[in-house]
Amino acid sequence: MRLLLIEDDLALQQNLYKHLIDANYLVDVASDGQTGLFQGQEYPYDAAIIDIGLPIIDGISVIKALRENDISFPILVLTARDSWQDKVSGLDAGADDYLTKPFQTEELFARLNALIRRSAGQASPLITNGELTLNTKSLQVEVNNQAIKLSSSEYKLLEYMMLHLDEVTSKAKLTEHIYDQDFDLDSNVIEVFIRRLRKKLDPTGEYGFIETLRGHGYKLKRLDVK
Questions:
Q1: Given a cut of 70, is residue 184 above it in pLDDT?
Q2: Angle of helix 84-93 relative to helix 59-68, nearest 10 degrees?
Q3: CATH, range 126-220
């Protein structure tokens, strides 16, 4: 999952960045509202974490501008203010949830994961598709109750596809959601990871989880539990 983090407190920004990267997220950062707004309008994100007290353009204005431009990814607001008016202002501007500083990173992860799941129509951390299950909290993957060991990039790719079941997604879009902005979008790395996922998840071809639609991309088929 690709996140946008807009936070002007550099110590907090770097601390959150490290924890998010360690938790298997891809993270772009901005230290002011103007830069963050540009990034939010230009790049595809699965969610954003936005501080209210930002320089140049405040966080509330950033959120309003994103929503006015029909950008709908979930937004988690960070605020050092305790008043209920500030929390209401953030939610009214278009944010989906908020955290008041100081906070525990475990709570941030829980709220962030819930926002991303809900935006994809998933209420539970355990996502099931036929005999395939993925736990967005523990990062564990199982097929027919057997644990499957995946690399970090393989997991990111599968998680994105599990949250977008039956959606045809191009190689370029998949790359944007699991690699940073400087990665070569023409690379065949997605083909390699798709091949690895098929081999690990469905070595005999029994389930046919992943479909290739030539010229369009890939999709993870929605399957019933047997």
A1: no
A2: 20
A3: 1.10.10.10
Nearest in space to 55 (alpha carbons), one of 42, 41, 37, 72: 37
State how far the Cα of 165 lies from the Cα of 146, in Å rounded to an integer. Answer: 21
Helix (DSSP H) and strand (DSSP E) numbers for the chain = 8, 11
Is residue 180 classed exposed, middle or buried when 0-12, 13-18 and 19+ CB atoms within 10 A define those classes?
exposed
Distance in angstroms (rounded) separating the CA atoms of residues 44 and 39: 9
Collect all residues with Cβ–Cβ distance below 8 Å to 13 and sequence separation of at least 6. Answer: 5, 7, 29, 31
34 within 8 A of 56, measured Cβ to Cβ: yes
Per-residue model confidence as pLDDT tens digits over 74-127: 999 998 876 677 788 889 999 999 999 889 999 999 999 999 988 888 878 899
pLDDT of residue 177: 82
What the block records as the tokens of 222 is 């929605």
Cβ-in-10-Å burial (0-12, 13-18, 19+) of 190 comes to buried
**Segments making up each domain of the chain, as ranges:** 2-119, 126-220
Note the CATH architecture for domain 2-119: 3-Layer(aba) Sandwich (3.40)
